[in-house]
Each structure stands twice: as structure tokens, then as C-alpha cells.
Write a sequence for this structure.
């Protein structure tokens, strides 16, 4: 174990690291500038627990109904040797008729162990790559592995289709509806970034077999119910942009050292659990420890991070609570009180605030003129 | 027979009381064991009851419209024999609902394979057939969520990479043939049956234009055309695995599959 790892272990405290999944990896990319999240994710901290104990529990996680619905739709699409999926791939993507081979990787001879399934996935995919045309087309729930912050993470895409134009395509089955050719933008964005995680993991795996990156397509196949029915429809989505962001963020996690350097050496998020699992550390003390790591709060965090309520509380009265755009516009001025003070002239601007202050005063004057208030 | 059943009834009564006492005392393990025993008694009792029913003279109008007429395993056997290929419980139920009389309770299918395996292991070959597992081609393990019939030749129960599609097409042909025979010159096809046929037709190239214009003959032709593409490669694979299964597995394993043999997987993997 090297110095960085032992440092992260100390930060996490005496609990097992929380493992990532495609969702959490995808969430990493939504706020790349946040050191707090980067440190916590690298250390494998249980953010949900930490947030709850420090007094700001976030109502996070997928609803049981959504999970059940998702599974039922996936089962329907994959029923009878992926009958519906084959039709979609043939109609939309020109999969040829002989390509129907189907390998179930949900278990290996009744064994559902992660390592066994990963080994089997690797050997089947390698065989498909090496023997060319007739060695597998559909791989159901393959298990991929990706190094995140120095730890292996197992990832399970819904399906990988091979031989679609001689390349691997990740197929993601989601249960939100595409109505009249349109789907909820946020949900599509989330699906795209998750698929990008799978594409990245698959490329890493194939790189181990000496395959070039373009063996895995930049485009993923998204399968969703069409309109108000249960009939599936498919669309191709480009994930190149998300892949770039993802790679950058994963590289950043790997170089967590530079972030650790500026933190106190005794920093820890340990809850001080006793033998019965009851935390003994005081919430206030824990909050102080969390505050030593800089966060970069933005309202978008509320959709993707367990620590969001704590960070929002911390950011109260500061410009970032108004959104990234406002914060960037106002540059060096970070409190809302200061902004208002500069605008109505009760506060004298420092040298680096002069430009922003001029703009603010102009804006305040315009506002007064519009609303007819006295100067 | 009746004396035996009376003994079972007394045993069930006392077991029920014991389960309750165990629950009250908070001893869950004991309660679970007792309940298992209770269930065992109950199924024996049910079996005896069915036998009694067979001996009794048939009273008029004894079959309700609702309850199953046949035991679940026979209903499943009927459907699988029609399909001629291993099938998932969901498909079995859909086909039973559309083509056969009575109800097939879905919940009973989940434990069917396990019950059959237990029955076979305690008294091998006591029944004329068993509802058993389909075997995966490579590892000869039971294929996830598929039911098959023990009297089929081994190669039909093997599931290789191409087999799910081949079995789907085979089933489509068999179902369409059945429809053709049932509704020959008769337009009274129920909406349920039409829906079932459409589920097959929609996913086979050039099998039907729309749900309202389904024609069993077209489905058969289209399915046969696609089947011809896959059939040879699939049957070669199946035959090879079947040979291996017969050589390597014992009787029970041939029907219900074998667990994972790690050494073989890792050696195959290099």
C-alpha cells in the first residue's frame, strides 16, 4: 500500500470502501471541479451515511417501483432469445439475419460470483474478437471491470451487441418512454453518460487483448418503450463528448495526490463507530472535518450528489447558490451581500472587483429605471 | 388410502399448532423447519386427494370453470409438447392461456423444476416424464429460466448460442400450425390468441404486415426461411454437447444439469 492509499484509507475511517457503479461513475462527471466529491469518491466514503450523520440527509436512490418497472421492461425486450431486440437491431441498424447468437452472462453454470462472471465475459469477448464472424452476437449482462481510484469496479451493461458493422455496440435498455420521437432530456443525458462508462470499460478490456479503441463503437444503442405502449424502440446516441469528460475525471481521480497535499494530514471522515456500529463522533466535529475540503456547490448537485444539502447549507449567502453562470459572471465577489453592497454603492470595491462593480452599478441603475424606484 | 390421509390430516393439525407455538416463542429456525414439514405433508395429502379423485365415480359437472383441470406439471407438459422446444415459464403461461382450457397459476411454475428434481432424486424414473432443465451447451449447467421435458432427446434440451433463436422460431411454427388447424375456415379467433400469434409474427422478418392481417401460413413460411439460416450450425453444436452430456453426466445431472466446474472453466480460459 502506498502513501496515497493509506492516506485515503485514513480519511475513509474503519469501514469497508463503498464500491462504485455506473451511476456513481457517471455522477463524477457532473461536477468535475469539486474537490470534496473527488476526495470522498477516491476514498470510497459512504456519502449517504456521512450526509445523514452530519445532519443533512439527502433523499437519494432509485425508487423500488422504477427498478421493478425497468427490470420488467428489460425482461420483455430480452424474452425468447432477445426476439424483440433482434427485430429492433435488424430494422434500425441493419443487423444481418444470421447474427442471432446469444450468450447469457448473468451466471456461469449457476454461479453468480462477480469474478467468475468477469472471467467468463473476458473469455467470450476475446473469442468473439479473435474468431471473427460467427462467435457471438448478443452478450446478456456481461460483467466488465474498470479501475476507479485504484480500485476495481465491476460494471454490468444491459447488453453488448457485436458484429454490428464489425464493431461492439453497447445496448442500454431504459424504461422511460420516447413519446413522438422525444424523450426526457435529463433522462437521456443520464443514460448516455452511463453508457459512456460502459463503452470506456469495454475499451479498456479489449485493449488488454490488443484491440484498437475503435473496436467499440462511439455510438450506443438506447432501447426505450415507444409512446404510451410497451413496444420497444431503438435509437443510436453519440457518446464521444461524455467519454472525453469521463476520461478526464477518471484520470483526475487517479492523480488524487495533488488534492491530498493541501489537506491536513489528520483529516478523517471516520464516524468513530464502536463495536455495535453506533457512531461516537459528534456531528458538529464531523461537519468541521468535511468543511476543510473545498466543495464547489452548484444547484445541479441536488440531482447527483449525496452531500448536496450539506454543501448548499455551507454555500448559503454565496453567489454559487444562484447557479454556475452567476458565479462565473461575478468572478472575484463571492458573497451575495457584497454583490448587493457593490450594486447600491454602500461598499467600496477592491481593485480586482472594480470591473464587476461597475457592471453591477449599471445593472442596479437599469433596474431602478425599469421599476421606477427613486434613486 | 383414507386411513393414510387421516393420519396425514392429524399430523398437519399438530404441525400447525407447533408452528404457531414456535412463532410465539420467537424461534424462527424451528418454525421454518416445521413449516417445510407442514408443506411436505400438505403436498402428500393433495397428491393422495388427486388419486382418490381418479378412483371416485365422476359426478356430473364437478369441474368448475375456474380451477385447473390438470395438475400443473401436466399442463406444462402439454404446452411444452406443443412447442417442441425449451421455453420460459412466461411463454408457457401465455400459450396455455391462449390455447388450452383451465388456468395455469404462474406462481406454481417457479418451484416446479425444483419439485421435479426432488421427486426424481428420491425415486428415479418413477414417473413417465419429468419437467426438467435445458442445459447450457458449454458448461452443461441448467439454463436460466427454461423448462423442458425429460423424454425429449438430449440434443433438443441443449441450449447453445443460436438455440434461443432456433427455439423461438420452432415454437412460432408449432403455434402457427396449431392455430391453422384449430381455426380452419373459422374466423372466431379470440383476441388473446391473436395477440399471442402477433407476438411471434412481429419479431420474425416478413411474417406479417400488421396485427390485424396475421395469417398462420405466412408465419410458418417466414419462420422456416429464417430457421433454415441457423439450423445447421445450431444442430451441430447441440449434437456435440449432447454427446458430451451423455458421456459425462449421471442420470439426475442429465436431466437437471450440473453445477459449475471451476477447473474446466479456468483451463478453457487459459
Amino acid at each position: 500500500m502506498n502513501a496515497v492509499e493509506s492516506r485515503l484509507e485514513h480519511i475513509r475511517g474503519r469501514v469497508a470502501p463503498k464500491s462504485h457503479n455506473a451511476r456513481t461513475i457517471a455522477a463524477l462527471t457532473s461536477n468535475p471541479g469539486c474537490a470534496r466529491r473527488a476526495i470522498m469518491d477516491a476514498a470510497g466514503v459512504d456519502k449517504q451515511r456521512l450526509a445523514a450523520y452530519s445532519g443533512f440527509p439527502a433523499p437519494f436512490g432509485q425508487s423500488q417501483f422504477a427498478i421493478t418497472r425497468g427490470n420488467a421492461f428489460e425482461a420483455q425486450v430480452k424474452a425468447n432469445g432477445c426476439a424483440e431486440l433482434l427485430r429492433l437491431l435488424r430494422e434500425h441498424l441493419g443487423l444481418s439475419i444470421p447474427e442471432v447468437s446469444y450468450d447469457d452472462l448473468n451466471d456461469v453454470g449457476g454461479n453468480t460470483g462477480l469474478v467468475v462472471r468477469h472471467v467468463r465475459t473476458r473469455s467470450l469477448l476475446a473469442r468473439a474478437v479473435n474468431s471473427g464472424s460467427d462467435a457471438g452476437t448478443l452478450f446478456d449482462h456481461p460483467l466488465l471491470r474498470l479501475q476507479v481510484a485504484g480500485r476495481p469496479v465491476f460494471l454490468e451493461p444491459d447488453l453488448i451487441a457485436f458484429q454490428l458493422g464489425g464493431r461492439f455496440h453497447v445496448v442500454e435498455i431504459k424504461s422511460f418512454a420516447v413519446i413522438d420521437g422525444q424523450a426526457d432530456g435529463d433522462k437521456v443525458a443520464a443514460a448516455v453518460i452511463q453508457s459512456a462508462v460502459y463503452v470506456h470499460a469495454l475499451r479498456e478490456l479489449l485493449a488488454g487483448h490488443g484491440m484498437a479503441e475503435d473496436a467499440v463503437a462511439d455510438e450506443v444503442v438506447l432501447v426505450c418503450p415507444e409512446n404510451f405502449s410497451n413496444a420497444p424502440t431503438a435509437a443510436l446516441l453519440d457518446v464521444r463528448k461524455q467519454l472525453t469528460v469521463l476520461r478526464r475525471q477518471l484520470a483526475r481521480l487517479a492523480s488524487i495526490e495533488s488534492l491530498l497535499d493541501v489537506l491536513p494530514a489528520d483529516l478523517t471522515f471516520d464516524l468513530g463507530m464502536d463495536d455495535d456500529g453506533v457512531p461516537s463522533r459528534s456531528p458538529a466535529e464531523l461537519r468541521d472535518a468535511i468543511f476543510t475540503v473545498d466543495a464547489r456547490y452548484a444547484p445541479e448537485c441536488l440531482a447527483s450528489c449525496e452531500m448536496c444539502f450539506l454543501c448548499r447549507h455551507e454555500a448559503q449567502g454565496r453567489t454559487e447558490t444562484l447557479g454556475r453562470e452567476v458565479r462565473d459572471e461575478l468572478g472575484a465577489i463571492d458573497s451575495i451581500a457584497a454583490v448587493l453592497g457593490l450594486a447600491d454603492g454602500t461598499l467600496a470595491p477592491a481593485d480586482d472587483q472594480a470591473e464587476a462593480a461597475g457592471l453591477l452599478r449599471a445593472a442596479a441603475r437599469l433596474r431602478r429605471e425599469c421599476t421606477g424606484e427613486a434613486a | 388410502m383414507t386411513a393414510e390421509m387421516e393420519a396425514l390430516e392429524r399430523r398437519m393439525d399438530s404441525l400447525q399448532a407447533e408452528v404457531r407455538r414456535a412463532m410465539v416463542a420467537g424461534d424462527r429456525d424451528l418454525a421454518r423447519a416445521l413449516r417445510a414439514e407442514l408443506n411436505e405433508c400438505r403436498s402428500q395429502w393433495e397428491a393422495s386427494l388427486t388419486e382418490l379423485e381418479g378412483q371416485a365415480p365422476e359426478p356430473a359437472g364437478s369441474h368448475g370453470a375456474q380451477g385447473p383441470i390438470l395438475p400443473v406439471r401436466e399442463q406444462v407438459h402439454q404446452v411444452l409438447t406443443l412447442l417442441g422446444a425449451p421455453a420460459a415459464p412466461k411463454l408457457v403461461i401465455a400459450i396455455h392461456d391462449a390455447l388450452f382450457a383451465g388456468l395455469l397459476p404462474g406462481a406454481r411454475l417457479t418451484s416446479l423444476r425444483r419439485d421435479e428434481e426432488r421427486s426424481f432424486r428420491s425415486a428415479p424414473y418413477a414417473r413417465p416424464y419429468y419437467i426438467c432443465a435445458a442445459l447450457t451447451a458449454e458448461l452443461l449447467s441448467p439454463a436460466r429460466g427454461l423448462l423442458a421435458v425429460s423424454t425429449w432427446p438430449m440434443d433438443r434440451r441443449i441450449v447453445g448460442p443460436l438455440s434461443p433463436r432456433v427455439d423461438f422460431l420452432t415454437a412460432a411454427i408449432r403455434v402457427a400450425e396449431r392455430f391453422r388447424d384449430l381455426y380452419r375456415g373459422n374466423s372466431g379467433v379470440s383476441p388473446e390468441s391473436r395477440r399471442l400469434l402477433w407476438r411471434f409474427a412481429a419479431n420474425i422478418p416478413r411474417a406479417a404486415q400488421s396485427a390485424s392481417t396475421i395469417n398462420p401460413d405466412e408465419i410458418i413460411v417466414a419462420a422456416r426461411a429464417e430457421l433454415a439460416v441457423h439450423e445447421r450450425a445450431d444442430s451441430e453444436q447441440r449434437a456435440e454437447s449432447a454427446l458430451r452430456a451423455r458421456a459425462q453426466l449421471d442420470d439426475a445431472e442429465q436431466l437437471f444439469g450440473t453445477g459449475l466446474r471451476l477447473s474446466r472453466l479456468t483451463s478453457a480460459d487459459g
Notes: Chain B has a mean pLDDT of 84. Residues 72-259 of chain B form one domain. Residues 216-248 of chain B form the longest helix (33 residues).
